[in-house]
Amino acid sequence: MAAMNVPPSPRSDDEVLFDQVGPALSRMRRRSSAGRRDLTRNLVLNVIAEAPGEMTVGGIAAEMGVTQPVASRTIAACIADGLLRRAASQADGRRTVLELTEAGETERRRLAAEQRQTFEHITAAWDPAERRQFAQFLIRYSQDSANWSAQHHPDDSSDAPNSDSSAER
Questions:
Q1: pLDDT digits 0-9 by tens, 128-148
Q2: Of 8-12, 72-76, 115-119, which range is least confident?
Q3: Is 11 exposed, middle or buried (0-12, 13-18, 19+ CB in 10 A)?
Q4: 63-113 pLDDT tens trace
Q5: For residues 34, 40, 45 and 51, what is the CA-based torsion angle, rounded to 10 degrees?
Q6: Which of 122, 30, 27, 36 minimizes the C-alpha distance to 74?
Q7: DSSP line for the chain
Q8: Residue pair 43/77 in contact by the 8 Å Cβ criterion
């Protein structure tokens, strides 16, 4: 039987629009005022600060979507810069957890202020109501994304036991 050439069904305006969301989020991250080092550092500091419980190198790697060695390098740099410290887990003394230092919290606030300033510059010509609404939707998307990820990737939970190596202790 001969194959029929069926034209593809037309895509809806929503499909075309939604296909642009991922690339737009990627561009937003790349075009931040901070350098790549600051972006990665900021991600690590925020993951630790926002964690509902203890955070390990493995937990940070899962949150960042990178391998443990990649996360370890960033964490080592943060420790060397005095932004993080290693501590024994209160739940399991065999595990090593990461904590923000006072300098780490200060750096986190500095980076957040930079990001706010960038947001304000980029959206300066926007209507104030649209600016607020966009900020609210962006925050909501981030929160819903975290909830979705926790439901769909429960093994990535920072509370799950992981195989932190003795080199992390």
A1: 999 999 999 999 998 898 888
A2: 8-12
A3: exposed
A4: 888 999 999 999 999 999 999 999 999 998 889 999 999 999 999 999 999
A5: 130
A6: 36
A7: -PPP-PPPPPPPHHHHHHTTHHHHHHHHHHTSSS-HHHHHHHHHHHHHHH-SS-B-HHHHHHHHTS-HHHHHHHHHHHHHTTSEEEEE-SS-TTSEEEEE-HHHHHHHHHHHHHHHHHHHHHTTTS-HHHHHHHHHHHHHHHHHHHHHHHHH-GGG-TTS-----GGG-
A8: no
For the stretch 89-127, what's the b/e string if a residue is b when 16 or more beta carbons lie within 10 angstroms of its beta carbon?
Answer: eeeeeebbbbebeeebeebbeebeeebeeebeeeeeeee
Q: How far apart are alpha carbons 17 and 51 in whole angstroms? A: 32
- DSSP per-residue codes, 55-75: B-HHHHHHHHTS-HHHHHHHH
| Tokens standing for residue 44 | 């690590």
Q: Please, which pLDDT band fits residue 163 given cuts at 50, 70 and 90?
A: very low
For the segment 25-71, what is each residue's pLDDT rounded down to a tens digit? Answer: 887 776 665 666 678 899 999 999 999 899 999 999 998 889 999 99
Instruction: Tell me the whole-structure pTM to 2 decimals.
Output: 0.73
